[in-house]
């Protein structure tokens, strides 16, 4: 079972690396959205520091949603999804493999670039650190929750808009605790409690989301 | 094998499938023993693909049961999948991966390992010499179909469900596929095949089932 998990991740990463443009689309979208705010609001460091956590996190939310649609639809079109449903093993671990691979190419780059974007907002070092950790704990949850939506809207016309409507409300807790962690750190209260909540949400969705995704995929191919 | 049945068999009892609000077929019953081939016939839209998808467990029938060795396939999904190879209209291969990579990933996901050298050998056998490590998206329609069909040569599955396997294949490939299917039947396999082409897979063990106006 672990072996097929490893192979699913390896397969999806190989494919992602052969079509690198998809990775850069998400990343550049994130960078542009986050960079637009200082341009629009003006270079007042106090204001920027105030809005930084929210803006970066909303940017991450939108960027991770942008990449979701491709998560299962390509597999659905070429029939590999069908074959995955017919393998003699539980579907949930294979689904985790797909989500992990998806996060590695769409979520992790956001985490890595975030300190650079944080600098635009004049975030101090502790703030940057909290931002990185909160994104590191939060973006996998976004991928997991988003994958449920992607599976539910599979094969629908105008699935993209529906996906956003389904998934964005579910992202709210992650947004609150993610941005909250950075704000609390900046205000000197310490963001540990928020980060622990993020970790808890991640663990819960890691356990529950794959089951929901697997069930939704079976319905979508019916 | 299971439940004291000496011979593994596939039994369909009172199966009905509905698409939208149209009944494709209702109360369909038949059974297949090992060493038998079922040739599924019927005009376009008569429900052949739907029946095959139901038999593969991809689609929930409206009513009725599909039993493998006396047990409902819905209650033994993973165990049943071990015995099953399904090839649908879609080839189930990734355009960005080469034929070798596609075949190896598919083998692993189906629970058996395939060494790289063996994968090259199998693809050679199926007539893809010289194309083994090209990205599959650069292959022709028939070559892609061959990559998908290469799974037949490495699969230990008992039941083959093949939806229009002969489409896009040239004469040589059609002959090869016929031979592969006949060999499978001789080795006590079960095959369920739809095709519009007149091909002679059709040995004395072949049974036909026509879907459409006159049910079964």
Can you describe what's shown?
The complex is a heterodimer of chains A (222) and B (216). Chain A is mainly alpha-helical and 222 residues long. Helices cover 86% and strands 0% of the residues of chain A. Chain A has helices at residues 2-18, 21-41, 45-68, 70-78, 80-85, 91-106, 108-120, 125-152, 159-186, 192-221. With 216 residues, chain B is α/β, with parallel strands linked by helices. Chain B has six helices and nine strands; from the N terminus they run E-E-E-H-E-E-H-E-H-H-H-E-H-E-E. In chain B, a hairpin with a 2-residue loop joins strand 4 (63-68) and strand 5 (71-72). In chain B, helix 3 packs parallel to helix 5. Chain B starts with 8 loop residues before the first strand and ends in a 6-residue tail after the last strand. Mean pLDDT of chain B is 86; it is low at 1-5. The A-B interface holds A 3-4, 7-8, 11, 14-15, 18-19, 77-80, 82-90, 94, 221-222 and B 56-60, 78-79, 81-82, 84, 86, 88-97, 101, 105-106, 108-111, 135.
Give keywords.
heterodimer, A: 222 residues, mainly alpha, 86% helix, 0% strand, B: 216 residues, alpha/beta, five-stranded parallel β-sheet, four-stranded antiparallel β-sheet, globular, disordered N terminus
Entry summary:
The complex is a heterodimer of chains A (222) and B (216). Chain A is an all-alpha fold and 222 residues long.
How many β strands of chain B by DSSP? 9
- Domain count of chain A: 1
Which structural class do you get from the secondary structure elements of chain A?
Answer: mainly alpha
Instruction: Give the CA-based shape of chain A.
Output: elongated
Question: H/E series of chain A, N to C?
Answer: HHHHHHHHHH
Q: What is the ordering of alpha helices and beta strands of chain B?
A: EEEHEEHEHHHEHEE
Our Rg estimate of chain B from Cα atoms comes to 17 Å
Task: Outline the secondary-structure elements.
The complex is a heterodimer of chains A (222) and B (216).
Chain A: H1 2-18, H2 21-41, H3 45-68, H4 70-78, H5 80-85, H6 91-106, H7 108-120, H8 125-152, H9 159-186, H10 192-221
Helix pairs in contact in A: 1-6, 2-3, 2-7, 3-7, 3-8, 3-9, 6-8, 6-10, 7-8, 8-9, 8-10, 9-10
Chain B: E1 9-19, E2 22-33, E3 36-41, H1 48-56, E4 63-68, E5 71-72, H2 77-82, E6 84-87, H3 99-109, H4 116-125, H5 141-154, E7 159-163, H6 171-186, E8 190-194, E9 206-210
């Amino acid at each position: 079972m672990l072996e097929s998990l490893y192979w699913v991740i390896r397969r999806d990463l190989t494919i992602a690396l052969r079509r690198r443009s998809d990775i850069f689309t998400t990343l550049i979208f994130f960078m542009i959205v986050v960079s637009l705010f200082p341009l629009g609001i003006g270079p007042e460091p106090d204001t920027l520091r105030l809005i930084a956590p929210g803006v970066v996190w909303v940017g991450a939310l939108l960027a991770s949603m942008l990449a979701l649609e491709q998560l299962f639809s390509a597999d659905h079109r070429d029939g590999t999804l069908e074959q995955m449903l017919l393998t003699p093993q539980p579907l949930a671990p294979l689904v985790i493999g797909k989500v992990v691979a998806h996060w590695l190419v769409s979520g992790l780059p956001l985490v890595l670039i975030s300190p650079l974007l944080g600098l635009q907002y004049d975030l101090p070092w502790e703030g940057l650190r909290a931002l990185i950790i909160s994104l590191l704990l939060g973006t996998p949850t976004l991928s997991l929750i988003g994958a449920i939506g992607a599976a539910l809207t599979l094969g629908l016309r105008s699935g993209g808009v529906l996906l956003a409507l389904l998934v964005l409300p579910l992202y709210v807790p992650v947004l609150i605790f993610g941005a909250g962690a950075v704000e609390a750190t900046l205000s000197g209260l310490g963001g540990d409690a928020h980060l622990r909540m993020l970790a808890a949400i991640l663990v819960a969705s890691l356990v529950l989301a794959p089951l929901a995704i697997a069930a939704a995929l079976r319905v979508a191919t019916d | 094998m299971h439940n004291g049945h000496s011979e593994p068999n596939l039994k369909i009892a009172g199966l009905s499938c509905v698409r939208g609000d149209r009944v494709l077929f209702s109360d369909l019953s038949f059974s297949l023993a090992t060493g038998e081939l079922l040739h599924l016939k019927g005009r376009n839209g008569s429900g052949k693909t739907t029946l095959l998808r139901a038999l593969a467990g991809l689609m929930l029938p409206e009513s009725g049961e599909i039993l493998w060795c006396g047990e409902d396939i819905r209650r033994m999904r993973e165990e049943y999948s071990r015995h099953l190879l399904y090839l649908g209209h879609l080839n189930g291969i990734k355009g960005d991966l080469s034929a070798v990579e596609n075949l190896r990933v598919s083998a692993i996901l189906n629970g058996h390992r395939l060494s790289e050298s063996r994968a090259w050998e199998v693809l050679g056998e199926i007539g893809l010499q010289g194309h083994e490590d090209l990205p599959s998206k650069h292959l022709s329609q028939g070559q892609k179909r061959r990559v998908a069909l290469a799974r037949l040569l490495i699969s230990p599955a008992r039941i083959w469900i093949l939806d229009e396997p002969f489409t896009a294949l040239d004469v040589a490939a059609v002959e090869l596929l016929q031979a592969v299917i006949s060999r499978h039947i001789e080795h006590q396999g079960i095959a369920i095949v739809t095709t519009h082409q007149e091909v002679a897979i059709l040995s004395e063990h072949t049974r036909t089932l026509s879907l459409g106006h006159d049910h079964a």
